[in-house]
Every structure is written in structure tokens, then in C-alpha cells.
Design a protein that fits this description.
Number of strands: 10
Order of helices and strands: EEEHEHEHEEEHHHHHEHEH
Number of helices: 10
CATH topology of the largest domain: Nucleotidyltransferase, domain 5
Distance between the termini: 24 Å
Largest sheet: 5 strands, mixed
Helix content: 40-55%
Radius of gyration: 21 Å
Strand order of the largest sheet: 3-2-1-4-5
Strand content: 15-25%
Number of domains: 2
Structural class: alpha/beta
CATH class of the largest domain: Alpha Beta
Oligomer: single chain
Amino acid sequence: MAASKSIVIIIDGGGTNTTVAAIDSSSVVDRTTLPTFKPIAGSLRTDELCRSLGSWLATAQTSAIEIKWILIGMAGIWSAVEKQQYLNSFAESWAEYISPDVPRASVVSDVELVHLAAHGSSPGIVLIAGTGSICIARTYDGRMLRCGGWGPRIDDAGSGFWMGREALRAVAQMLDGRGLYTTLIRPVAAYLHADADNHAAVSAALRNAAIDRCSKLAPAVLSFASENDVVALQIREEAADELARLVITLVNELTRADSANTDSLKLAFAGSLFKDIEFRESVSVRIVNVYENIVMKFVNDVVLEAASVLESR
């Protein structure tokens, strides 16, 4: 790579991991996946992010190329005040851990980054279902509306965390004799590091289970649903109901805000759960039953599609 080239770095900071890509003319020069650096109470975690970025940049193919701009989409950042605080903290961390020459940087929420990838600056809706769940929409006058995104302890209905917790609950009820038998006991036992055939061991592990990472069970729920496990199917369908409700609620709000423009609604799906085609179709059907003219697509690679949008501007 010639040293005269310049790149854009896009950081997609989700609740489970962080995707970082160096983009040159909408092509990926290099990319990596890092742990999550979502801000927590008392810490924006920009020091941790920049230490990891510095290690990656030192060995990546970007080492001799000028960084002209950094676009950060970070989970847990939404208001203008939060964005400015994060930007200030990121600049200080970059100067301390990477270089005193701090590139130009912009900060948006991770869901706004997905919206950029899906719709650019145009009106449209994005439904995200990964570890958490949220729906956002840009109105024709440029305002951002949101529904959901309350976090796993309060809501995040239909999300990976929600599915995982429901799988744990279903297995607990099965072991009690209150619920149906479900083959979900196998992935749940693996999650708990227990023997699925030893129900006493699974019960003991469940009583002391930490659920912070239970979203890891979501792919198993979708897989077992496709194999017609009744309980997994029920969890999948309830998740689809909840996610469709987010979209329908937000479209109703858009109808009030943009009553003349609801004939051209555009919806993008994003997030790890929607990589499962059956699940995506299950959610789609519920939305189309209410708003039949809505146009849908799936955003598979947020950083690359966001880069393509930026390059076209």
C-alpha cells in the first residue's frame, strides 16, 4: 500500500463485540473483531478501546497509511451530550495510547451507524436484534424516533438475551414438571457446563446460573425451532411477535409524524438473530400483515455498507 493513501476507520461498538474496519474507497483494507467496549456506569471505556486499537494498528496493514477520519458507532451512546462526552474522552485516550496526532472523529450510537449503512441520510426504519433489541426510524424532517432498547434487565424483548433467558426458564420448568419436555436441555446444559443426562446436576447449575451471557443460547433456540422442538418454536414465535411490535409501534408513530409519506416505508433488519432466514421471515410476515407496502432488506455487514454510503457522498 502506498503511504500517500488515506483511510477511514469505522468502529461498530456493540454490546457483545466491537467490529473495527479500515476502509479505502469502500473496500476493506483490514478489519478485526475486539471485545465489547460499551460504556458502563462510571466509565466510558475509551482507554480500553484505544489500547486495543493501538495494538491492532501496530500490526495491521494500515500502519503506513494516513487515517483521515474515524466514525464510531457505540452502544449506550444516544444523546448529543453523551456523544460529545464520548468524543472528548476518545480523543484524550487516543492521544495517550496511540498518537498525539488525533484524527478527526465522529460519534453516533451503534443503531444510528446501522441506519447509515441501511438508508444513508434518507428516511427509513431499522430493526436490530442481537444481544439486545431496538427499532429506530428517521423521519422526513430528519428526526430520530426509537422504540425499545431498554436493556436486558428491563425489556429487550425478542433479543438474544431474551431468548436465552426464556430457554433457561423453559428448562427449569421442564425439570420441575411444570413445562413440556424440550431438547433445549442439551444446549442449556452445555452453557451451564453440566451433563444434560444428569438432571440433578443441571438443576443445581441452574439455581446458581449467571445469565449475563445467556444470549449465547439464542442460536440454539433458533436451530432447535427449525427442528420442530415445540418449546423452541414457541420462544421463536414469541420473539418474532415482540420484534414485529417494535416496528409496528414505530410505524404508527411515523404515520402521525409523516402522514403523507407512509406509502414508501423502508425497513432494514440488522443483527445476528436476523442471519437466521426463517426467523427473519417470521418477523417479516407479521409486519407485512399490518403494513403490506413496506419494503424490507437485510444489512449483513454494517461497516462495509456504511463505508459504501460514505464513499458515495
